[in-house]
Amino acid sequence: MNNDFDILIIDDEQVVIDSIIKIGQINNYKMDSALDAQIALKKIDINRYSLIICDIMMPGISGFQFITEMQNRNNKTPIVITTGYSTLDNAVKSLYQGAIDYIPKPFTIDEMISVMKRGINYYKLISKIESDPNSVAFVPCPPKYFRLGYSCWVNSGFDGSYLLGATDIYIKTIEDLKEIELMDIGETVHQASVIARFKSSDNTTHQLFSALSGRIIDRNEKLLKNISLLEKDPYFNGWMYRLIPSELDYEMRILTSCSSDRT
Amino acid sequence: MKGFNEIGFYKRISLKLIIAVSITAIVIISVYSYFNITAQSDAMLAEVERHANQLSETVKNSTRYSMLLNQREHIQEIINTIGKDPAIYDVRVLNKEGEIIYSTKEDEIGKMLDKKAESCYACHAENEPLEKLPIKDRSRIYKLDPGSDRIMGIINPIYNERSCWESDCHAHDRNATVLGVLDVSISLAEVDNQMSINQVRVLLLSVVSITALGFIIGFFVKRWIDKPVRELVKATNEVSIGNLNYAINDLSNDEMGYLGESFNKMIKRLDEVRAQLVQSDKMASLGRLAAGVAHEINNPLTGVLTYSSYLLKRTKENPQMQEDLNVIVRETMRSREIVKGLLDFARQSAPKKSLIDVNEILQRAIAVINNQLKYSKINLEKNLDEKLPRITADANQIQQVFLNLFLNAIDAIGPEGGLLKLKTSHLNLSPKGNVHIKNCVCSKNHNLIDNEYKIGGNDSIRIKIKSENNIGFVHLDPVYGSSGHFFGISFDNDKEVSLNCPVCDISLIDKNETCPLCGGPAYKITIPNQGYIEGCASFKDNWQRWEFVDRDGERKFVEIQVSDSGCGIPQENIGKIFEPFFTTKGQKGTGLGLSIVWGIIDNHNGTIKVTSEVGKGTIFSIKLPQ
To answer: Domains in chain A and their CATH numbers?
Structure first.
């Protein structure tokens, strides 16, 4: 029996599965669940899913091992990591391992809806691009840029500061971008902490995680006036922050080089 | 390990050294004695020989006239007279044929001597007899038999002269060269005796000097090597059974002293590292615990948050229910923040320390709250020490400390506005008044730290005090050298006071020690891994001694003062502000801010003090060691 589902939830706590299902029902997603990664892998063999939401700490195979196993199977289904052990370290590790997003427990309904929406959109986008690269007007991340997961890019300003912004594919997963909320100059951010909130036309708030830790020394005020800059020119005029990194050497190792995206 | 005394005597350095030096001494003394004795006996023999030669000449000359007159009895008379000297063994005259003509021993007269006899051998050794014999060859030393004394014989040939053959008696042929031999024998008994006395003396000297050398070397080896090595062995044994507070006292100023000093340093460092290890281990397990708790709580919270928010979305037409549900959602969100704080607390278990500039960190923290200060109408006054030394610390954690203090200050100042003052300075401080006793036990290892009663925000040391019939507790100030003690009972400090462990009642008074200021009794409390602290037990004065930290002398500190003109902290709350989950901000705060601050400062072996006056403001003063 071959079924198509929107979301597969893997968590060893039934209450978490029930909660996520409850949230998914708001948008009428078709959902499936598994109490551990072993069962999930069997389900993935049979069914097709657009998005997987996976816990880290589970009996048997952990969330991180599950990501690796999916990569070994060459399964491109996007994975979102969720965990009760909600530290930035786990967030960084999840994104580094290849999860497209990270959502700490306990989450609000809005946070989960945002993650589901972007996850499913992401799957749609990459499926489209894969089947016909010209079907989507998609601007890949320029070479020499780096990115955390697929969402936040960083580029050296060559004066010790670094520019941060959101990738084109991240903006596209939000769909109708309506509002942007930026942090203030002078604030300190950490790698994988929230640096910006976007609101889409359906009033869902989406969070963007920072690619680097550091202090914000400047931000692109133009974005607040003209949000379409983000969609038109996400990598240059659509930059978001200028930042002085605090732990550059260590954190750069976790980022993915965009130069490899174009091959 | 082998006990020091189990090392065999023959294996000890002192014995080896004594043997080596003794052998050297023996060789030197032997060589010296050999040459000395040889030279001495040569000189003595030469003297005897000269004496014998003189004697021989004297005999020859004194008998000459009698010989010419052929007065035989007279000659014999002279010889006999001379032979009476006890040093003279005998005197005899032989003719050319070897017949003894005159002798001091009458029974010899008339005897014929063989050419191989001692007296003849010098000239008759070869077939053709020598006619001239050099003086040095005339003497010979011989023994009559192996047991008897040595004898030196001098032969003096009597040559033919004109007067001899022209004499009336015509006794001699004119052609003969040698007429006979005068043979004087002198006993060497006395000389030999003298020589053996000398040998005994030299032997005695050797024995005495070697013994003396042995004792002297032994004494100094014991003093310079044995004693310090014994101390070192004792110290290593102490360390191997886990006593890392042991220090070698009484160090000499030589290489051994230097070794001892470096040993002390090593042990101290080892102790520090162990303490750090224990501390970080503790923090790590606390962190794991917090993380585990956070993880466990977050799962059910997920359910609560989701379902209540879901209900909230579905009951928009029911305002009463909305209100109640909002409380649930809000409180769940608050729980989420508390758990997040707990996880942040867990994260601080592994500080990433590096050399940091406190001023720079302070500026960074200021940058973060700058806007907020403006909105809150707070003036910032900075007084930063330009020459602040860099300290080893975790930059992020220290920044978090500043941020938490700033945010508290902003809250304390309130919407009316006010003043926030920051001051940094560097200072050298003695351990007194700055080192905080975090752990102390009685001799039976019962914990004396009381986290219920705090002095200056720190857990106090609780001790049972008995004075006459009065029993109560005294809370000691945990800062070394400080005297903010709290006495639960009043007592007469001239009367006898006993201090005991509140758990096992064992006495904490050290009978071997008295307070050097008042001469009264002294208490002694063990600080695990850091020696022990002593103090005046009658509390007449503030004497305290903690050798373990005094050893280091003054240390460099960086001091940071954050003072605000806010509402201040009531006295009854000052002891509680660093406790986790204590908050006066109601639902706004989690009560974790200052406990995190305290944990971070404590992790950096620093101290944090708070002074506050209600309505006037609060000063937080942090000291971080370099």
So the answer is: 4-131 (3.40.50.2300), 146-262 (2.40.50.100)
Query: What number of other Cβ atoms are within 10 A of residue B306's Cβ?
Result: 25
Domain extent for B563:
354-430+554-625
Domain-embedded: residue B505: yes
Same domain, residue pair B205 and B100: yes
Taking the C-alpha atoms of residue A192 and residue A144, their distance in angstroms, rounded to an integer, is 21
Candidates B321, B593, B299, B546; CA nearest to B434 is B546
CA distance to partner chain A, nearest, from residue B621 (Å): 24
Contacts of B313 in chain A (CB under 8 A): 26, 109
- Please state the rounded mean pLDDT for residues A44-68: 92
For B364-377, what is the mean pLDDT? 80
Chain B residue with CA closest to A188: the answer is B368
pLDDT of residue B477 exceeding 70, the answer is yes
Q: What is the pLDDT of residue B131?
A: 67
pTM score of the predicted model: 0.48
Q: Of B347, B372, B406, which closes a domain?
A: B347
Write out residues 284-343 of B within 8 Å (CB-CB) of A: 291, 294-307, 309-310, 313, 332-333, 336, 339-340, 343
- Cβ-contact B600, B348 below 8 angstroms: yes
Question: B291 to chain A, minimum CA–CA distance in Å?
Answer: 6
Inspect the interface and report whether the beta carbons of A20 and B306 lie closer than 8 Å.
yes
> What are the chain A neighbours of B298 within 8 Å (beta carbons)?
83-86, 104-106
Residues B268 and B411 in one domain: no
Two tokens, residue B71:
């007065």
Residue A246 sits at the chain B interface (C-beta within 8 Å):
yes
CATH at B106: 3.30.450.20
pLDDT digits (tens, 9 = 90+) for A142-157: 888 999 888 899 998 7
Please list the helix, strand and coil fractions of chain B in percent, rounded to the nearest 5, in that order.
45, 25, 30
**A108 close to B (CB below 8 A):** yes
Q: Answer whether A84 sits within 8 Å of B399, measured CB to CB.
A: no
Structure tokens at B610: 């708070």
> What phi and psi values does residue B256 have, to the nearest 5 degrees?
-65, -40
Q: What is the pLDDT of residues A14-24, one digit of tens each?
A: 999 999 999 99
Is the model's pLDDT at B427 over the cut of 90? no
pLDDT at A82 over 90: yes
pLDDT above 60 for B141? yes
In a domain, B442, yes or no: no
